[in-house]
Structure formats: C-alpha cells, structure tokens
Amino acid sequence: QKEVEQNSGPLSVPEGAIASLNCTYSDRGSQSFFWYRQYSGKSPELIMFIYSNGDKEDGRFTAQLNKASQYVSLLIRDSQPSDSATYLCAVGRYSTLTFGKGTMLLVSP
Amino acid sequence: KAGVTQTPRYLIKTRGQQVTLSCSPISGHRSVSWYQQTPGQGLQFLFEYFSETQRNKGNFPGRFSGRQFSNSRSEMNVSTLELGDSALYLCASSLAIGGGETQYFGPGTRLLVL
Q: A94 and chain B: CB distance < 8 Å anywhere?
C-alpha cells in the first residue's frame, strides 16, 4: 500500500524565518511530487511540483527531492503570517496522487 | 481560464438517501479525479476518469460511483448514504498528457449526512 507520511505539526515559526516541511513516501516507483497548501475551509492550492532529484526554486519556495531516500521537502523562506495553513505533500504515479495528511504551519507575527 | 467548478457547494442529506455531485474541469483538461477529505483520514482518492473511462479506482465501497461525459465534465454518485460519508468531496482536473500530470482542485462540495 502506497503511503505518504508527514509530521502533523503544528510547526510554529516566527515571521521572517525559514519553515521546513518534510515528507517521506513508500512507493519507489513514484514519478511526480507535489506540494499543496490548504487554508482552513478551502480546497488545496498547488504550490510546487518536482520530478527530478535536486532542488527547485520558485520565489520564496524551494522543493527538494531525494528519490534514493524517498524524501521530499518544502522550504519557505521569509515566512509570512499568510503562509499559515496546512501543507499537503502528494506523490504521483500513473496519473493518481497519494496525499499525506498534511503539516499545519503557524507563522507568528 | 476558468478554474475547476463543483456543484453544489453544500449539501445536507439523510441516511439512506443518494447524492450526485458535479464537476466541470478546466477547459482542455481531460482527466478528472475525485477525492474525499475528512479530518481523520485526510485526502483519499476515490477514482479518476479520462476520456469517459475510469482509469483508476481507490479503496471505496461500490456505493461510490462516477462517470465522465464527452465534454470531460464528471459526476460522482453516492448511494445509500451513511453518517460516515459526511466529508468534503474534491474534484481535481489535469491535462493528463504523459501521465502524472499536475492536478488542480475545485472548491469542493461539503456533504453533511444526518
């Protein structure tokens, strides 16, 4: 059974700090990796996707993938209170996504 | 481009009834996936449709079914509702070219079963 594990949190960081969110997955055949942000009462919103080992940067966000370790992470630089949300890691294979249960991030002013 | 739309947004039903939820994907997207989200279980995959065919199915009972129309719009149906079916039902669409495509979510339908 495919599993995606995330620390449920909450992860608390002060405004301006770097938030580090981690995710591990069990299916070695996984092909694509996604980070979604979900505000309370809203639907998930895509932040980033990554397919290859290494880092991928987009603005304040950096996704890191290590397929050998089956590990994906998301770094949020200069965290803002508006970043407070639940972050969902999703792992894809053959057009289906398996989601982790999410990590709640709290950014305090 | 308009995003994924879902109707209705909120629904209240009683046990034993059935319900049909609708999803219109982003224009040009051919794949539609459905998910159930509950506080305890998180986001769980129900099924995925591509070109009117169910390509993948999650581990849900047969009471949960779906279909996709030629214009890529999709519906899911839940028969004989149970209290545990109360959840946020999310639809996501993707281009589905080459597999493993990025999925974009609609706003969801919040179903409450009494």
A: yes
